[in-house]
């Protein structure tokens, strides 16, 4: 029940992100999307992930988004005119992709029990830390190179 | 493994030396020292003298193929650094940081050659891409460079998203990120595996700029500073190809028959669009970027055929194509005018540069006695031995013949047209390195086994 509520909320708000004319509204809808996805994480026993998703995405990144959009003052810019045929081709290819994705996903097994009751410890930070620093220590360390290069890049671009 | 760590560390060293050595001219020697150290370490690792025994849970797999390939990459980067040292100083104020970013890219290249899980593949592709977005925009005052950077970033982020989606589908179908596990799971070939495969195919085709995912390539290559283009079009591109080949060989090798026709179509489209569009280019730099699409078509033949010839051929192709293109770009950078008219009469004013450029262009065409010939030969023989789509081989040969037209047009402009081509003065080191590169191209063209036998 909760699952369906969250799913409808996630899909609906994601559609609103795309269809809103006002960019600020888009961002607010995106926050709703992140919250409903966090709800899904909780249902999957990933509590830590759910909290981090809210703190980092809904909190920090969305605030940055809002700042940028407000600074650029995009409100009065209408979307540029596009070729009619281009739109038509876009709709057709998008729908075919949707069809293929649905075809791929329709045979997947559904879980009988959606939530592990009473034993939901698997997604707590304790277990996560153990797995992260034992099984996934190499990708963990290597992603630091990725962030370092991104930081260097930001400084290089930002400097005069 | 040690080379991989060292390449990431040397990026940090470059940044710190940027603080302590204020002089821009000091950047190149530090970078060259680093790359030589990397070459030595990777040689020692190849001979199993150096060995790091770390518990990495099988996330990376060190094969002779990967080690030879990283050796080739480090070597090409060394030549690239020596040839372009002067241009790096002219591009902007952050010379040290540019070198640092390139070292980070090198560690990313190490990851995509050795990956054994999709997680490492993704990290490697991202470590390659993100510094490149910045390098593409390193000429900050130039609007075209900014446009190239932004375009590359948006398209690259989009293709990374597609790749992640593919990985998610594969994980859903097989329950593992490990290549071997996915290989086992492909036996059933469920719709989920199929969609994951197609999404990965799309994103990898984007990274190697195969048609119809090539639209970003000409603009980005043309807009970026020429030094950066030279690196993007060669070393990064061949690394993406090695990742492509390894992914589709190890993870989807069992269902080769299912996707082969898809790759064949992409190959044919890439060869066609790359070669035909290159014919109409007036700027040599833009011509070289279309030629890089055309050459990508040839390298795709390796993914198409997936046999020993393909693997040997890809290493050879990586070396031949990178050396020739780096050399050719190094000559283009020295020109005052990048258009075809700008090359008129270079044979008289700068006979040395013209001769070297001729050798590189001949190698790119695939004329016998140059490395490009054997590289193309291996690719074609691999596709012939595979034996499924003979039309593709005939088509590829036809397209190689067309490619001769636009490469020879530059040679014609240099030697047979009257003009006053102007080039910047070049240093002695530049000349000797260029000569060495050209000789290497010819030596590899006569004895390709020098490289291919290192695989065994």
What does this structure look like?
The complex is a heterodimer of chains A (160) and B (456). Chain A is an all-alpha fold and 160 residues long. In chain A, 74% of the residues lie in helices and 0% in strands. Chain A has six helices and no strands. In chain A, helix 1 packs antiparallel against helix 2 and helix 2 runs antiparallel to helix 3. Chain A is globular. Chain B has 456 residues and is an all-alpha fold. Chain B has one domain. Chain B is built from 19 helices and no strands. At the A-B interface, helix 4 and helix 6 of A face helix 1, helix 4, helix 5 and helix 8 of B.
Output the keywords.
heterodimer; A: mainly alpha; 6 helices; B: 456 residues; mainly alpha; 19 helices; 0% strand
Structural class of chain B: mainly alpha
| Main sheet characteristics of chain B | none
User: What is the CA-CA span between the terminal residues of chain B?
Assistant: 20 Å
Figure out the total of helices of chain A: 6
Gyration radius over CA of chain B: 21 Å
The oligomeric state is heterodimer
Helix content of chain B: over 70%
Largest sheet of chain A: none
> Kindly state the mean pLDDT of chain B as a whole number?
91
Given as residue ranges, the uncertain stretches of chain B (5+ residues, pLDDT < 50) are: none
What is the overall shape of chain B? Answer: globular
Helix content of chain A: over 70%
Number of strands of chain A: 0
Whole-angstrom Rg of chain A: 20 Å
Distance between the termini of chain A: 55 Å
Compute the number of helices of chain B: 19
Q: Find the count of extended strands of chain B (DSSP E, 2+ residues).
A: 0
Mean pLDDT of chain A: 84
Task: Name the overall outline of chain A.
Answer: globular
Estimate what percentage of residues of chain A fall within beta strands. Answer: under 5%
Give the SSE string of chain B.
HHHHHHHHHHHHHHHHHHH
């Amino acid at each position: 029940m909760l699952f369906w509520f969250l799913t409808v909320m996630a899909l609906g708000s994601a559609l609103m992100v795309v269809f809103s004319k006002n960019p600020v509204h888009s961002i607010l809808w995106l926050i709703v999307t992140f919250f409903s996805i966090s709800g899904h994480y909780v249902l999957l026993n990933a509590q830590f992930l759910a909290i981090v998703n809210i703190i980092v995405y809904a909190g920090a990144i969305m605030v940055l988004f809002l700042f940028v959009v407000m600074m650029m003052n995009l409100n009065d810019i209408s979307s540029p005119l596009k070729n009619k045929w281009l739109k038509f081709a876009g709709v057709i290819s998008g729908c075919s992709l949707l069809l293929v994705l649905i075809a791929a996903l329709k045979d997947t097994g559904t879980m009988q029990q959606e939530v592990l009751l009473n034993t939901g410890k698997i997604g707590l930070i304790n277990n996560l830390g153990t797995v992260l620093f034992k099984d996934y220590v190499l990708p963990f360390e290597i992603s630091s190179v990725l962030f370092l290069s991104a930081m260097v890049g930001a400084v290089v671009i930002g400097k005069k | 493994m040690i080379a991989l760590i060292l390449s990431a560390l040397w990026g940090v060293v470059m940044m710190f030396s940027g603080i302590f050595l204020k002089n821009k001219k000091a950047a190149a020697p530090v970078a060259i020292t680093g790359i030589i150290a990397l070459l030595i370490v990777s040689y020692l690792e190849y001979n199993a003298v150096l060995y790091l025994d770390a518990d990495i849970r099988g996330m990376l797999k060190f094969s002779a193929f990967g080690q030879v390939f990283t050796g080739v990459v480090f070597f090409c980067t060394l030549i690239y650094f020596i040839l372009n040292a002067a241009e790096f100083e002219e591009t902007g104020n952050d010379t040290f940081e540019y070198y640092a970013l390139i070292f980070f890219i090198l560690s990313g290249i190490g990851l995509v050659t050795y990956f054994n899980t999709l997680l490492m593949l993704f990290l490697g592709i991202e470590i390659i891409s993100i510094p490149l977005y910045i390098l593409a925009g390193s000429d900050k005052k130039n609007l075209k460079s900014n446009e190239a950077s932004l375009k590359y970033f948006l398209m690259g982020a989009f293709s990374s998203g597609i790749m992640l989606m593919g990985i998610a589908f594969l994980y859903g179908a097989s329950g593992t990120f490990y290549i071997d596990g996915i290989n086992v799971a492909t036996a059933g070939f469920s719709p989920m595996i199929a969609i994951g495969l197609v999404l990965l195919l799309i994103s990898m085709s984007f990274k190697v700029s195969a048609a119809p995912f090539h639209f970003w390539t000409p603009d980005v290559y043309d807009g970026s500073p020429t030094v950066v283009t030279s690196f993007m079009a060669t070393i990064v591109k061949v690394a993406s190809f090695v990742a492509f080949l390894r992914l589709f060989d190890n993870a989807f090798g069992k269902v080769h028959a299912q996707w082969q026709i898809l790759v064949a179509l992409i190959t044919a489209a890439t060869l066609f669009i790359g070669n035909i569009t290159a014919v109409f280019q007036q700027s040599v730099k833009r011509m070289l970027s279309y030629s890089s699409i055309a050459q990508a078509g040839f390298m795709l033949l390796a993914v198409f055929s997936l046999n020993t010839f393909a693997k040997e051929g890809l290493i050879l192709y990586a070396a031949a194509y990178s050396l020739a293109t780096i050399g050719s770009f190094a000559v283009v950078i020295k020109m005052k005018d990048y258009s075809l008219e700008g090359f008129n009469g270079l044979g008289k004013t700068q006979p040395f540069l013209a001769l070297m450029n001729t050798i590189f262009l001949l190698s790119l065409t695939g004329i016998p006695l140059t490395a490009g010939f054997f590289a193309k030969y291996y690719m074609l023989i691999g596709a012939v031995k595979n034996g499924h789509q003979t039309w593709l081989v005939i088509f590829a040969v036809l397209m190689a013949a067309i490619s001769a037209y636009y490469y020879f047009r530059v040679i014609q402009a240099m030697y047979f047209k009257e003009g006053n081509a102007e080039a910047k003065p070049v240093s002695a080191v530049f000349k000797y390195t260029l000569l060495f590169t050209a000789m290497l191209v010819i030596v590899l063209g006569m004895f390709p086994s020098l490289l291919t036998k290192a695989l065994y």
